[in-house]
Backbone:
């Protein structure tokens, strides 16, 4: 709305809501801080878990920051920026998502204090950028190198990443698994170490405990043989990998066959059998005794393969075929006419295993011994999912350390060191940016404070002790189990430098983006739009319930309750 000689002029659609100036900034900060506060209690080895219940009643129990933020179904646009910052952190380095969200929330809280004192948001953004650049310099000065050959240190990185997660009781074993998996995926490209975690296979089966998880030197396939009379176990396997179906091909054009006599039907069936047998004979002629097929295998073909003592599997994913090819040396063939004995791969053993209530197929003793898989066990689906998230964090942390080759101490040590040095840096500045840099330093202290609070200690007392210790040792951090201030590097609590760098960068950029918004215009849906959305929701519910609409997707029942202002 604008005014001209006292006459109001409408420039926005009726019903549109507009928040401007201080009001807009305050609301955005409140929403962003609410997201950060939701995950703050999960930080550190003593962090608590969150139970997320979706609209269908499915339960997720976790203290993984990015998982919580994804499941919360945040609607406020400013809060979404914090969620996106955490997702970026997860995508780039796979760990430190909670730290990113908590830091972003604290940066905004301190900025709100400055805005209340009359400091313009642009000045705060400028100061935050200066502080962020200086913080990265301080971090790099604390870093020390690591090599992929230093297994003990890699295991400590893995344990640090997994500590506090659901699989903590088995963290020693799972931490070793994470290192094994990452080391097997290390590649040397132009003298630089890279890790491709897409090659990693983790098969989850409910039953037993996390301690019963095991590494398989080879490939695990979540499939069982296509016919019950086929052998369950093949030694000295000759493996064929097929990207083509073992069945009759459909005609390119529609055809209609008219059968008037029983003899004609018998001839037709005999011809079909002969075609299928010829297709199977092409496979058998190569000497293959194990077949992994990406597509279907005809019932008759299954019979012929079974009679020949061949173990066959169908509907194998393209990813699994590639892993089998890498492990066994087999070529993936897309036409049976060109299949030769040279295309076959080799393995000492292919066997079907009963694991829990399901079946897995293990291909072991492969030509390429570096291909490994993890069979993960757990008492419930929730435990398995939590263990997988913890393992994923550990693998990404180890992979990042190998690629970046730089580590820093954990336990809040980097944040305290940055806070102390930024205050010294702020004293050298002359403009109002000095105030923003100081507030940035104060915000960095939220990490050691949260670690202390979540472990049941006084955050003020521990922060004072940390600051005092840092004058003598920049690697001093909080032992969350004993409450003592110790040398985190000597204790083995270490993290990849890149995780901390990315967390500070993502958090500060997200905070700066929120601070630069001084006008929020929210359009109101027209009645026609609302009716259209209601019809679409009703149609979706009717389809999902098979005609029993009204029982699912009830408005107001979705999302996570208990986080006001974010849904």
Residues:
């Amino acid at each position: 709305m604008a005014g001209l000689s006292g006459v109001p002029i409408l420039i926005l659609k009726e019903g549109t809501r507009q928040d401007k100036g201080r009001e807009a900034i305050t609301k955005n900060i409140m929403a962003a801080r609410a997201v950060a506060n939701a995950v703050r209690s999960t930080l550190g080895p003593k962090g608590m878990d969150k139970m997320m219940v979706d609209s269908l009643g499915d339960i997720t129990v976790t203290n993984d920051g990015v998982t919580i933020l994804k499941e919360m179904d945040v609607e406020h646009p400013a809060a979404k920026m914090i969620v996106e910052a955490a997702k970026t952190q997860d995508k780039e380095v796979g760990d430190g998502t909670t730290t990113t969200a908590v830091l972003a929330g604290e940066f905004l809280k301190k900025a709100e204090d400055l805005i209340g004192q009359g400091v313009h948001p642009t000045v705060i953004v400028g100061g935050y950028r200066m502080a962020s650049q200086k913080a990265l310099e301080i971090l790099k000065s604390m870093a020390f190198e690591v090599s992929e050959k230093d297994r003990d240190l890699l295991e400590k990185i893995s344990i640090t990443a997994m500590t506090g997660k659901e699989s903590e009781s088995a963290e020693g074993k799972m931490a070793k698994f994470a290192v094994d998996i990452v080391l097997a995926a290390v590649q040397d490209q132009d003298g630089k170490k890279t890790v491709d975690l897409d090659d990693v296979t983790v098969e989850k089966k409910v039953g037993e405990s996390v301690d019963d998880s095991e590494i398989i030197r080879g490939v695990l396939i979540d499939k069982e043989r296509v016919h019950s009379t086929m052998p369950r176990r093949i030694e000295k396997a000759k493996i064929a990998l097929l990207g083509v179906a073992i069945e009759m091909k459909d005609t390119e054009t529609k055809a209609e066959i008219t059968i008037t006599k029983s003899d004609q039907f018998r001839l037709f069936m005999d011809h079909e059998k002969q075609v299928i047998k010829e297709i199977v004979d092409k496979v058998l002629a190569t000497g293959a005794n194990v077949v992994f097929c990406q597509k279907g295998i005809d019932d008759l073909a299954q019979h012929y393969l079974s009679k020949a003592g061949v173990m066959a599997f169908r509907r194998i994913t393209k990813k699994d075929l590639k892993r089998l090819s890498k492990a066994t040396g087999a070529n993936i063939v897309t036409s049976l006419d060109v299949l030769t004995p040279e295309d076959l791969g080799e393995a000492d053993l292919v066997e079907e295993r009963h694991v829990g209530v399901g079946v897995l197929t293990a291909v072991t003793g492969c030509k390429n011994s570096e291909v490994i898989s993890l069979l993960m066990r757990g008492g419930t689906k929730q435990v398995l999912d939590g263990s997988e998230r913890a393992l994923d964090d550990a693998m990404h942390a180890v992979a990042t350390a190998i690629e970046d080759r730089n580590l820093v101490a954990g336990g809040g040590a980097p944040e305290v060191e940055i806070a102390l040095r930024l205050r010294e840096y702020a004293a050298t500045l002359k403009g109002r940016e000095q105030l923003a840099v100081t507030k940035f330093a104060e915000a960095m202290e939220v990490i050691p404070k949260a670690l202390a609070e979540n472990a049941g200690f006084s955050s003020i007392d521990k922060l004072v002790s940390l600051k005092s210790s840092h004058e003598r040792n920049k690697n001093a951090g909080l032992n969350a189990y004993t409450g003592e201030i110790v040398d985190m590097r000597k204790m083995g609590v270490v993290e990849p430098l890149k995780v901390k760098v990315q967390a500070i960068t993502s958090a500060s950029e997200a905070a700066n983006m929120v601070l630069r918004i001084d006008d929020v215009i929210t359009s109101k849906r027209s009645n026609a739009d609302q009716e259209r959305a209601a019809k679409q929701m009703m149609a979706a519910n009717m389809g999902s319930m098979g005609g029993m609409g009204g029982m699912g997707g009830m408005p107001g029942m979705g999302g996570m309750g208990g986080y006001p202002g974010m849904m």
Summary: The CA atoms of residues 53 and 59 lie 5 Å apart. The chain is about 45% helix and 20% strand. Residues 542-567 have pLDDT under 50 and may be disordered.
